[in-house]
Amino acid sequence: MKRALLALALALLAGCGARIPDAAQGLRDSKALIGATSRYDAARFKGPWLVRDSFGDGVAQVALVETTKGPAFQLCTQVGCGDGGTLWLAQKQGQGRYALSRPDGSTRTLWVLWVDEGFRTAVVGNPAGDFGWILDRSASGGADRIAAAREILDFNGYDTDQLRIRQ
């Protein structure tokens, strides 16, 4: 019975993942499955998130905000978005998956790979593997959640040895 349940769980996980042929910048193994979390809830995800760990990207804060053109992600280089940040309009592509675009034509995908039950800590990245962040609502604390977030990045094929702590 346990083997049957394990096989079913693995089949379900495989169905939620996506294989992407090329990994950008060597941050993740392109052969590893990657999937967005089914726990994602846009209403609970809204608001500011601090980048606690990253793969060298200059972003310090991420916020899901509402604009006159619909939902958007604001990527800021300073905590508190004092610099105004870069606004990426977000088009929902599925559960926890967004296609982001800027007026200058730049595009990026953003997937929410994991979020804890209290929506205090999250992991975002994308199948291309050109970025990955551990986000948290607070600048400190939650060591157990941050450790779990690192495990999620590892599970999704990211090279966690390249993570940079931003605290």
TrEMBL record:
Domain Lipocalin/cytosolic fatty-acid binding: 106-166
Membrane-spanning segments: none
Database matches in InterPro entries: Calycin, Lipocln_cytosolic_FA-bd_dom
UniProt xrefs under PROSITE patterns: PROKAR_LIPOPROTEIN
This protein's UniProt keywords: Signal
SUPFAM superfamilies: Lipocalins (SSF50814)
Signal peptide bounds: 1-23
UniProt-recorded name of the protein: Lipocalin/cytosolic fatty-acid binding domain-containing protein
Organism in which the protein naturally occurs: Sulfitobacter pontiacus
Organism classification: Bacteria, Pseudomonadati, Pseudomonadota, Alphaproteobacteria, Rhodobacterales
